[in-house]
Amino acid sequence: MSVQQVLDLIKEKNIEFVDFRFIDLAGRAHHITLPATEVDAETFVNGVAFDGSSITGFRGIEESDMVMMPDTGTVYVDPFTAHSTLIVVSNIHTPDGERYERDPRSIAHKAEEFLQKSGVGTTAYFAPESEFFIFDDVRYESTMNSSSFFVDSEEAAWNTNRKEEGGNLGFKIGVKGGYVPVAPVDSQQDIRSEMVRLMQEAGLRIERHHHEVATAGQAEINFRFDTLTTTADNLMKYKYIVHNVARQYGKVATFMPKPLFGDNGSGMHVHSSIFNDGVPLFYEKGGYANLSEMALHYIGGILHHAPALIAITNPSTNSFKRLVPGYEAPVNLVYSKGNRSAAVRIPVAAVTPKGCRIEFRTPDSTANPYLAFAAMLMAGLDGIKRKIDPSALGYGPFDTNIYELSDDQKKEIRSVPGTLDEALDALEADYEFLTEGGVFTKEFIDNYVNVKRAEAKSVAIRIHPHEYGLYFDC
Known about the structure:
Elements: H1 3-12, E1 17-23, E2 29-35, H2 41-46, E3 48-51, E4 65-70, E5 76-77, E6 85-93, H3 104-118, E7 123-135, E8 137-142, E9 147-152, H4 189-201, E10 206-211, E11 218-223, E12 226-227, H5 228-248, E13 252-254, E14 268-276, E15 279-280, H6 293-304, H7 306-313, H8 319-322, E16 332-337, E17 342-346, E18 358-360, H9 369-386, H10 407-410, H11 420-429, H12 432-435, H13 442-460, H14 465-471
């Protein structure tokens, strides 16, 4: 969409405000809103100024001036504001007009450019399956003398005897019993359908929605694959709509990987493939799972660099509460066709040559999607460049349930890091594949690690309620 087309849209839709947004290091959106009367062609040339020193992981106060440069290809009408508002996602520039190296969208764009220059292919496609919970109540605190959290859902297994409902209507979802039941067990059909309706109005192509495995309102909505940066933009739009529709229904949605102990967490399984001028490069009939040699090398790169990669695709302390055996979490660094206990799965049901892809199941939605997809692509391209054979390195294929292997057999399989700090250690030791072509910079990685180390420390030094049960009577 051209600048003039955006200005025409503002008039056509009687837009009152234009909301300019950018994405921070953690993958959260920020915005500044201008009256539509103040937006003209010059706005798209000069951008919108903001204070970078107030954004964690960006700039110090001595060099805080930054500029949002609007991307006219990202516009959509905000479905939630009382006053008609047009949303425009922006790239971040320095005052001298340079792309800011810590801008996640800049890194995503550079990864796409690196692919095109590599000669491997022209386009990388991504499709995330971002799971979430819809709760009725959430409360938490962490103070000097108290620490607690509480979540609740009318669907939850623990509410079979709750009296507050004014007559318990039953049909609660058991632990690990939530996969695609019909109403009245699934009580969230309408709220998910409303999310889908607004996503479609905002330009997303939705393929399906359903209840997920966990009790207490776990859900999934799948949208169509697209190019790397566009898919990251779409995921930000997706999360914005999920959060705000839940709020409209008097509920709250969270993409937190492990909000509940003892049931499945929420992952973000990411499908990816590479095309060359419209020709799929991952398909070869007769190969393992009909994969080409290039696709296997791409898998090799993902699995070889996985410990470092996970610092970006699973960048929270809570991520590693999900990455434990027994809850469908892909903790084993192997690949397999159709096997959901592997970190990399190759879907084989109803797949065409153009639909042939790999699915990296480890990531979760605490990841910044621009960084996560860019890092995945860089790991895969490194595997292609170095012809990393995943089978030769012991990464599979494993077509059995890995969780049912003997302890001796499991010892032969690499696992994901056990903590965020371990993943950050791996990233510090293995980052060169990310800096190829200047996609990520060493300065960016050092800054990223410092920010995430601070998060990990803030959790590690706090008293956990469970410690009282373990140690208070010592």
